[in-house]
Amino acid sequence: MIYKGVEFSVTAVAPGIWNWQFRIGDRVIAGKTEAKLNLLAIRRVQLRIDRELKKAERERPASPDPPAGRSSEKS
C-alpha cells in the first residue's frame, strides 16, 4: 500500500496482532500493533508515517534565503 508517497505493508501474525513496515529515505521503520480490525492497524501505520515524515522534515537542513526579487513583505 502507498500513503503520502510512502510504501508500507501490514501483515497479520496472529489474531489481533499486526506487523508493519515502511521506508522513508534510507531508514526502514518496522513494528507491531494490536488491533482487531485490519483497517485500524492500517490507520495506525498511516499516523506513524505522518509522524516520521514530520520528523524527517524537521531534521532536514534549513533552506537558504528565498531567491532575490521575491519578498514576503507587503508595501
Can you offer a commentary on this structure?
The protein is α+β, with helices and mostly antiparallel strands and 75 residues long. The protein has one helix at residues 38-59; strands at residues 2-3, 6-14, 17-24, 27-34. A four-stranded antiparallel beta sheet has the order 1-2-3-4, covered by helices on one side. Strand 1 and strand 2 (6-14) form a beta hairpin.
Short description:
With 75 residues, the chain is α+β, with helices and mostly antiparallel strands. It contains one helix and four strands.
List keywords for this structure.
75 residues; alpha+beta; 4-stranded antiparallel beta sheet; 1 helix; 4 strands; 36% strand
Walk me through the topology.
Elements: E1 2-3, E2 6-14, E3 17-24, E4 27-34, H1 38-59
